[in-house]
Specification:
single chain, binds zinc ion, 16% helix, alpha/beta, 393 residues
Length: 393
């Protein structure tokens, strides 16, 4: 367990308390006298910044804050605050940024339908029990990097206008999420120890080096998914989701705001480099930009539904002085990359899609690409996609 950084604020000191002092009262909100508590809560209700850094909150103290503030907090700071018992932040409006860095929730935490008008900072926050962020509306970014979720996590119907980060987060309980993000969702280095059911509509979902211990399902729409170096210890399915996400109450999740135009029309897989794909099932995903070189057990990947590979532009080209008609066979991104490098003329190069080389410096040879095709052909034959497999001869 990480040790919280030394407080940078004037501390209460009551029995080692790290709570920030109520100005001119010498103690924090939890330990100040009744008059001091009154002054602090009144000033918060009147729109002063809600500074409760390091304060130990009981459910009763939070209830008092909830009542007095009418659930509206300005520039709320709960850095290193400790919440004992079950806490209820449901319906709170955080007007401006909110900071829960290094805070600890010892019971369940309910953040249902919170609104955040600025950056939401939950880095290294520890949730000892269940936490619910259903129907949350984040108008800025939401950062849960290195957070620890020890119970169930629910993020159903959550909208984030900008980036959502769960980098290096550890989820020891099951994860249920249905998120629309206008920017990107990052799960880089995150560890999901139990089953995860994730619905995501976001321009990019980054699962680099993410560990899926439990069987998991990722349903994505209008999303590019990067699985580079992910560790799949159980079955993981990535499925294209057609149509808007449906919430448990039967309504559709609104996504015109914040999703916008930055998203691809169809969901695509970008990379499985470095992944042991024997546990991976890909359903209806676009595979045009997907880089396979460096994947392990590629012959065991399951690719089903309308999973589409790219094809080189059809038309005429010239190769070695002989006019040559491009075929419409499907080609994997790795071949596009290789051809881009090896084709001698600009004209021939143009027929192959320009794909970002994800691992610059890795030199792929024609034999490698041929090997990728052999493995994919076997995988497609085993997945009963015989016509698709034919393209890979
Ligand atoms: Zn105190």
């Amino acid at each position: 367990m990480t040790v919280a950084p030394t407080p940078t604020w004037p501390i209460c000191g009551h029995g080692g308390c790290r709570g920030v002092v109520v100005p001119r009262r010498g103690r924090c909100l939890a330990h100040v006298d009744a008059a001091g508590r009154q002054i602090s809560l009144l000033s918060t209700a009147a729109g002063s910044p809600a500074d409760y850094r390091g304060v130990p909150f009981t459910p009763e103290l939070l209830e008092e804050l909830r009542r007095r503030s009418q659930r509206i907090l300005y520039e709320a700071r709960f850095e290193q605050a400790v919440f004992t018992g079950d806490v209820d932040f449901s319906g709170f409006l955080f007007s401006g940024p909110v900071d829960f860095r290094d805070a600890r929730f010892e019971g369940t935490a309910d953040f249902t339908r919170i609104g955040v008008r600025g950056h939401a900072d939950f880095r290294r926050t520890v949730f000892e029990d269940e936490v619910i962020f259903d129907r949350g509306d984040f108008e800025g970014a939401a950062d849960f990097s290195r957070a620890e979720f020890r119970g169930r996590v629910s993020l159903t119907g959550t909208r984030v206008a900008r980036n959502m980060r769960l980098d290096m987060a550890r989820c020891s309980g099951p994860v249920e999420a249905m998120i629309v993000s206008g920017s990107e969702i990052h799960l880089t280095g995150a560890v999901l120890e139990r089953p995860a059911r994730l619905y995501a509509a976001t321009p990019r979902l980054t699962c680099r080096d993410t560990t899926f211990v439990g069987p998991s399902t990722l349903r994505v729409r209008r999303t590019q998914v990067d699985l580079t170096d992910a560790n799949l210890a159980s079955q993981v399915s990535i499925l294209q989701h057609f149509g808007p996400f449906c919430l448990p109450d039967g309504t559709n999740m609104e996504e015109t705001r914040p999703l916008g135009w930055g998203s691809p029309f169809l969901a695509e897989l970008l990379s499985v480099r470095g992944v042991d794909v024997s546990f991976l099932t890909v359903v209806d995903m676009g595979l045009r930009p997907c880089q396979f070189f460096g994947a392990h057990h590629l012959d065991q990947i399951r690719i089903t539904g309308e999973s589409l590979f790219g094809s080189p532009q059809s038309g005429w080209g010239v190769h070695g002085g002989i006019p040559l008609r491009w075929t419409n066979r499907r080609a994997i991104a790795d071949e596009h990359l290789l051809r881009q490098r090896l084709e001698s003329s600009d004209r021939n190069r143009r027929a192959w899609t320009d794909i970002d080389d994800d691992l610059p410096g890795t030199v792929m040879e024609p034999a490698h690409v041929a090997q990728l095709y052999r493995q994919l052909r076997k995988a497609l034959e085993d997945s009963k996609d015989e016509p698709g497999a034919g393209d890979f001869y």
